[in-house]
Amino acid sequence: MNDAVLGRVHSFESCGMVDGPGIRFVVFLQGCPLRCLFCHNPDSWKGSGGQQMSAIDVVNEAGKYKTWMQTSGGGITLSGGEPLAQVDFTLDIIRKAHRKNIHVALDTSGYGKLERIRPCLDEADLILLDIKTVNPFLHKSLTGVDASTPRETLEYLKKIGKPLWIRHVLVPGLTDKPSDLEDLLQLLKTLPDLKRFDLLPFHKMGEEKWESEGLEYKLKETPAPNPDFIEAVKVRFRQEGIPMGED
Question: Superfamily for 6-239?
Answer without folding.
Answer: Aldolase class I (3.20.20.70)
